[in-house]
Amino acid sequence: MAAVFTAAACEHHPGHPEQPARITAVWRRLREDGRFTPIEAAPAELDYLTLRHPREFVLGVEARAFRGEPAGEETPLSRASWPAVLGAAGAVSAAVRHAMAHGAAFAAVRPPGHHASADRAMGFCPVNLVTCAVAQARLAGAERALIVDWDVHHGNGTQDIVAREDATRFVSMHQHPWYPGTGMASERGVGNCFNVPLPPGLSRAQYVAELWAAIEAAGDGWMPDAIFVSAGYDAMAGDPLGGFTLEPEDYATLVARLRDRWPDAPLVGVMEGGYAPERLADGVLATVAAMGGATRKGRGAKGG
Question: Within a domain: residue 220?
């Protein structure tokens, strides 16, 4: 099972809870566990980001980083942020290639991406990585994509990008009312969006059941060629930016169910939120361990 990294992730210092300690805690936990193959990915080229973002937008984010200006609402940047963005994109791209060949991979990256729409950065997210991953896999032949977003915040940017794509289904369970204020069940896109807004403080079992019901609804009569998880861990009990009650083993349960439901679909995890570093590391470890069960011999698909 591959866990993909980029050293540049440590150099992005935005001065808010999305801090370097998040990624260093994850790397340390995965190294200590020893069951996973670490892959140090090369940075992506700028063109990778244009799979989902207009070139002018990407160049604007780069320019703002070099000027030390915010890319958008709650998305401060510095000169070191742009290498971190390209490093994260490279790690996601490597994870897609590995998953297409071997079954599963997890990109342990920052900054996160699911709040970024095609032409707008916000909420700690300069660019949208999971939708770039979908586009890459599609070019490699995985036409139908399922995105499962279990971050405590709605993946509004991801929804904005894919809401008109018949071949993509997007499932998001998130706290409501909460930032960014989107993600009502009535937001259906072209019938491909399945939002599950829930209040804080429910039982773990109820959150897992509600998310799984939405995943089953998304897959009713429809088979994904690849599955992507926007893997945020701020839905765990004790996170300072959320009020859900999930525990690490709940993520393992969800991954196991995804594997059992669609055993032949490559599975790609892309790290999103989670702002208690050690708890984040617990959640990632549980996810990656469960994803390891999806690793298999390649199906003959080519990486993007």
Answer: yes
Task: List all residues 6 or more positions away from 236 whose beta carbon is below 8 Å from its beta carbon.
Answer: 242, 244, 245, 246, 247, 248, 274, 276, 279, 280, 282, 283
For residue 59, the domain's CATH number is: 3.40.800.20
Contact 174, 261 (CB under 8 A): no
Tell me whether residue 304 is in a domain. no
Catalytic residue, chosen from 53, 98, 115, 154, is: 115
Lookup: tokens for 265? 């679909």
Q: How many domains does the chain have?
A: 1
Which residues are within 8 A (CB) of 181 and not within 5 positions of it... i.e. 6 or more apart? none
Closest Cα partner for 113 from 147, 79, 143? 147
Do the domain assignments include residue 299? no
In a domain, 41, yes or no: yes
Range of the domain at 207: 2-294
Per-residue pLDDT tens digits for 197-254: 999 999 999 999 999 999 999 999 999 999 999 999 999 999 999 999 999 999 999 9
Q: Is 115 a catalytic residue?
A: yes
Q: Where are the beta strands (DSSP E) in the chain?
A: 2-5, 37-40, 72-73, 104-107, 121-122, 145-149, 168-175, 193-198, 226-231, 267-271
